User: What shape does this take?
Amino acid sequence: MIVPQEEIKFIFNPYELQPGDILLMNTYEERLRRKMGCIYEHAAIYVGDAYLMESNGVYVTMSHIYSYAFREKEHACVLRMKKLSPITASDIARNARKQMGREYVDTTIFRHLRNYKFSETQDTSNRSFCSRLVAQSYFAEGINLLPNSDFCEPDDFLQSQLLLPVENAVVEIANDLVQLVMNQQRYRERVETDSPNAELFSELSKLYGEDIQDIGQALHASFHSPELNDQAIDVIRASRMFKHMEDVKRETPWIFDDVEFLNHYQNTEEALHFLYSNMNHYDNTYLPDYREFHMQMLVLAANSPQNTLVVYLKDYIGKMIEDAIACRKRFAELFRLLEKKRPSDTVDFVLKYGMYNLIDYVPRTLDIGFLLRDMMKGI
Assistant: This one.
């Protein structure tokens, strides 16, 4: 639910969060909370860069942490594993991101959830819900936060002996962030039922005759039914997935014209919040994720050059990276535009919030350790 502007008192504090942190929330679904008899009825996992992964009742999706706001401090809580290496935390976040687009479970499962949570019963539905997404992201790294990662509730994390509350993770909102939080809440509400990933997986499921809920399952099907791969390529071409530039132009067409950008953002502080957020997101999430995926496709294509889908995705993702870099460079150009057109407002913003560490795009070295870890997990 969207918390009205005048009722927003607290938000998550991105400066205290680390990848892998577990976010518990009261989202004001009072009927659900009464039925569950719980403190928190929603759970999500922080993946870094001010973004969380959640199963929102329709699909698994990525949302900005400012897309949630709270009337009282006790309406949210953040938990962190007592001992967690940065590498393992990164892998846990990656496990969560891999599930982007996974469909929500058949809700009849909740009738039996509490009967199963202390059993060894496993779910084979290939679907997710909020606390399952969190627990399974840890379980994939061999970490059992809860007795049963398939059947669990948000409040169960409060009882885990492996977790501790994070101090100062929920803080009072500053006045200058209220409008930003309102914008993020509205954006989450607008796009929460829209998932290009899920649409693509649905079409590929029909084609291959398998239940496909993530890209890994799609690639697995491509090796089992190579005769369908050319048709799968047509499905991908027709889908909205992997079309980064088209997405950006549809959502924010005004960023590609200087005059339109300045007209859209009459308020310089709001414009700079937008640019900082996007530069950060591209540098720390979009481009690293795209490049990791591209590296996986390069390795697969080198070992399976006969798989036309893999070879196609290798080139397709490469083009998507080029588009993402072009967008990232455009954000730097817009920052320079504001420096030129609104110098005093830009200086005031930088004095207040600091300068973003790298305004201009600088390619970063890609750590391929994740490939070796994935290979070891397979073995």
In short: Residues 21 and 198 are 25 Å apart (CA to CA). The longest strand covers residues 42-48. The two ends are 44 Å apart (CA to CA). Residues 268-303 form the longest helix (36 residues).
